Amino acid sequence: MSNSALFYQAGVTLPLVSHGKGIYLWDTQGKRYIDACSGAITCSLGHQHPSVTAAMKAQLDKVAFSYRTQFESQVAVDLGDVMVALTEDRLQRVFLVGSGSEAVESAMKLARQYFYVRGETQRKHFVSLRPSYHGSTLGALGLTGYQPLEQPFEDLLIPSIKVPSPDFYRYTEVDISTHVTRLLQQTEAAMAAAPEGSIAAFVLEPVGGASTGARMLNREYLQGIRALCDRFGCLLIMDEVLSGIGRTGEWFAWQHWGICPDILALAKGMGAGYYPVAAIMAKADLVDTVQSAGGFMHGHTYAGNPLACATGLAVIQAMQDENILDNVREQGRYLRECLEQMKVRYPVIGDVRGIGFLQGVELVQPDAGKTPFPASFNAFSRITECAKKRGLLIYPRRCLNGMAGDHFLVTPPLITTRVELDEMMECLDQALK
Ligand code: PMP
């Protein structure tokens, strides 16, 4: 157990990690953990993936870092081309960055610079959903609709116009379609209340992550938002930092509905835990407008370095070689079935939602309708601790003041087999008991 100068979570003593292999991690005491959440929904290919580590070692033996204003690298060019192909050429430009928060902020800056170059300097505002999570740096935190994270920094944030996210579990209308219609009307009113021509972009997670326990938007809602963006002349930014790169069974979640954003933010699965690799992708005309006026004014030292790009490229290649998307679709259905069966057995499970290997489980008070546990009960940490004691890692989130109960994500590495899922489910069953 560590006791060090590092500070992270208050009041928590963590085991020291020793090593990982496939979907398993070991601590220095020799205890084995099943990684049912891919770390932070990141390690899509598990640990010590042979072709990824080999590609990284090979790149290290050539050059790890070269600066993007001095050299281009072949691996960077190849990564860009491969990523565009994954969008079926619908997003033709790629800008590499180093983290999810930075990807979101780069998307915001690209949107703003695009309108600036076009002389639409009044287009300043962003619209985002509550609840949502878009990152921890100040710009991304301004979009994030999760009050406890925002409060201490409120005066530093660029406040976005927050509109309620659809809630397909606790909606009160007669059906989902009526719920969506009401929310779209509410959103339209909120956008119309902003000064005319002042909205730069609408930012949303097509499938939520930690903030909503894998709440998945639907076609009707997304079509409505796309139409509102067109009507108000603003861009649509999708934050797929968590849902992108195969997690949902498509390369990008927007491909489930065919509703393509103008700018897409990606991170976690891109480097799959092997190296911090992230990106924004955008439509060519948008980027070319910015490039023709001197170029995008953004850049961090480590962004797009050869080691990062070799990693990103090797991750996508391994996913293609191993037909990972097929595995996510097939085993994702099985995972969902298992969780739905648990919901029948355990009244503490109120809702199971999500898609592919991005599944969320919401906890409620047994036999009390959809009533969340009181925050003081700490349901999310209880279940996480029970699971961890049994050697199972899940990704928890505290309840959101009436907007959602405590929940946890089950987001295994995308390589997970059916036998491994059975082992995972057996452990989860024990923890829930
Ligand atoms: N957006 C979403 C949807 C995320 O889930 C996260 C990370 N959980 C971020 C942005 C921020 O990413 P990072 O932690 O890499 O900055």
UniProtKB/TrEMBL annotation:
A Pfam match: Aminotran_3
Protein name: Adenosylmethionine-8-amino-7-oxononanoate aminotransferase
Family assignment from sequence similarity: Belongs to the class-III pyridoxal-phosphate-dependent aminotransferase family.
Record-linked InterPro entries: Aminotrans_3 (IPR005814), Aminotrans_3_PPA_site (IPR049704), PyrdxlP-dep_Trfase (IPR015424), PyrdxlP-dep_Trfase_major (IPR015421), PyrdxlP-dep_Trfase_small (IPR015422)
Alphabetical list of PROSITE patterns matching this protein: AA_TRANSFER_CLASS_3
EC number: 2.6.1.62
UniProt entry tagged with the keyword Transferase: yes
Cofactor: pyridoxal 5'-phosphate
PANTHER family: AMINOTRANSFERASE (PTHR43094), AMINOTRANSFERASE CLASS-III (PTHR43094:SF1)
Keywords: Aminotransferase, Pyridoxal phosphate, Transferase
Taxonomic lineage from the root: Bacteria, Pseudomonadati, Pseudomonadota, Gammaproteobacteria, Oceanospirillales
MF annotations from Gene Ontology: adenosylmethionine-8-amino-7-oxononanoate transaminase activity; pyridoxal phosphate binding
Keyword Phosphoprotein on entry: no
